[in-house]
Specification:
The protein is an alpha/beta fold and about 300 residues long. Helix content is about 60%, strand content about 10%.
Length: about 300
């Protein structure tokens, strides 16, 4: 991709650090550069704008770099974006943690223009493993077959993809088909595998809740819906969070922390009457609850 079309997002809570990276990128010929001072802001930018490459500091007060990376890897719309992690120190444990999270590379502070240039070019020039390309081809073909209603053929393609790598998205699609076929135990197995690989896969938790309900497993369904809602909240996906929490409330209307979470969602939207109504419901259940958030 030509340099003039690449969009970089630089994330650091120190303005001077962002200015330095921006200056280096400008010297390298990159002109389209966005900035964020924390991971939460960065995620909002990623969801609303085109970004081709993220350079992010590890340590930030509001959502660290590694936390942002994990959230991105949990989002099918963002998990392909190269992510360069910047840190002042790196040990074996951090290398392992960053690798598991899906980092494209890391760079130690302080670094020179030459070092940054080499690291970015190395990431951009990295060729896809032929096996991964083949697995992705099976996955995409499986998606097409599933959309056509050819579920058995789709499952064959998804299983071929799994022979190369264990993908949360592939397991999710298998679970989705199995639930349509009313093979609920097999569906749950697939959804559990999906969240084992990606424990922030809200959609998989939500689908697990639906299947648990069909099996009459109310408690498990409630927990799955709550987990989905919490993850959606963390990602600022308030509408999805609201739906998941309301599914949990249908099972147990006395769950205080859900009313509290819904109150937070409505408050952030500026719908203060709805927020107060949720807090009042929680207080009615337990007036002594110390975890109530009213501000």
């Amino acid at each position: 991709m030509p340099k003039e079309t690449l969009v970089f997002l630089v994330v650091d809570d120190i303005p001077a650090a962002r200015r330095t990276i921006r200056a280096f990128l400008n010297e390298m010929g990159y002109k389209d550069i966005l900035e964020a001072n924390d991971g939460t802001t960065a995620y909002r930018i990623l969801k609303s704008k085109k970004v081709d490459f993220v350079i992010c500091d590890w340590y930030m007060e509001q959502m660290s770099g590694i936390a942002l990376l994990k959230v991105m890897m949990a989002d099918p719309q963002l998990d392909h974006i190269p992510f360069l992690l910047v840190t002042g120190e790196m040990d074996l444990q951090k290398v392992i943690e960053a690798g598991k999270a899906g980092v494209s590379g890391y760079i130690l502070k302080p670094f020179t223009l030459k070092v940054l240039k080499e690291k970015i070019e190395s990431i951009l020039n990295k060729q896809d493993d032929p096996k991964d390309v083949k697995a992705n081809r099976h996955y995409l073909h499986g998606k097409e077959l599933a959309e056509e209603g050819r579920y058995d053929d789709a499952l064959k393609e998804f299983n071929k993809a799994l022979n190369t790598y264990k993908s949360a998205e592939v397991y999710y699609n298998i679970g989705y088909i199995k639930s349509l076929q009313k093979k609920y135990d097999e569906a749950l197995y697939a959804f559990r595998k999906a969240v084992e690989i990606n424990n922030l896969f809200a959609k998989a938790y939500r689908s697990m809740g639906d299947v648990y309900l069909k099996k009459g497993m109310q408690n498990e369904a409630e927990e799955a819906f709550k987990k989905a809602g919490e993850i959606y909240m963390m990602k600022d996906m308030s509408e999805e969070a609201e739906l998941a929490f309301n599914e949990a409330l249908k099972i147990d209307p006395s769950t205080i922390n859900i009313y509290n979470s819904l109150g937070i969602i409505y408050r952030k939207r500026g719908d203060f009457d709805k927020a107060i109504a949720q807090y009042q419901k929680a207080l009615k259940i337990d007036p002594s609850d110390e975890n109530m958030v009213l501000s």
